[in-house]
Amino acid sequence: MKTLQARLDLIQERIECAKFLKNDGLGNEIGFWVFDYPAKYELLVRGQLIHLTERLTNRNYQFVHINLFQILVDMLTERGLFDRACTREQQAGLASLRKTLAGPLSQAKVAEYIAQKVQPEKLQFLLVSGLGNAWPLVRGHELLSALQDVMGHTPLVLFYPGEYSGRDLYPFGMIESRNYYRAFKLVPEDGNKILNG
Description:
By secondary structure, the chain is an alpha/beta fold. It has helices spanning 2-16, 18-22, 42-58, 68-78, 82-92, 94-100, 107-118, 131-134, 140-148; strands at 32-37, 63-67, 125-129, 156-164, 168-171, 179-180, 184-185. The chain has 9 helices and 7 strands; from the N terminus they run ααβαβααααβααββββ. It starts with a helix and ends in a 12-residue tail after the last strand.
C-alpha cells in the first residue's frame, strides 16, 4: 500500500505537466493514460480522487471526472431501461444481463454518450473512474478504443482496478486476458518520472 500511496501522490504532478496537458512528446499517440491499482484498494483510490478533483478544481483546470457506473445508470434511466435491467439481473444473472444490454450499452454508444455529456473539446482533460462497478458491462480496452473516436486531442486518464502491463489490461489483477490497448502509464510502479516539462 505504501507504493500505491506514493503513486497516488504523484498524480496531480503528472496531470499538471505541460506534456500531459498538451500531448507533447507522445510520438503521435493519442493522450490516453492509465493509472492502475490493486482492486482491493478501490476505496482508498476513490477517496484520493475526491481530494484530487477538489485540488484541480481550485487550480481552475477545465476538466470533468466521470464515474462509468453512473454513466451506465444514466443511459439506462434515460431510455426507461434501468428498472427492467435490475429485474433482469436478479432473474437471469449478470451474464444474461450483459447479453441483453450489448446493444443499448455498446462501447461505441457509451463513448458517444460520454462525449455528449462532457464535450471533450472544451476540456483540458477527462478523468474516468468506476470501471470496477461497471465491469463486465464496460470493458476497459473496448471503451478506450471507442473513446479514441470522440475525444479528439483531449487527454484522458482511466483509473483502472487491475494491472496494466503497458500492453495488456488485466481486470482486477486476477482475470487472465489479452486485452491489448496502447496507452501510457500515468505513474509507473517505480515512480520514475516519464513526463518532464
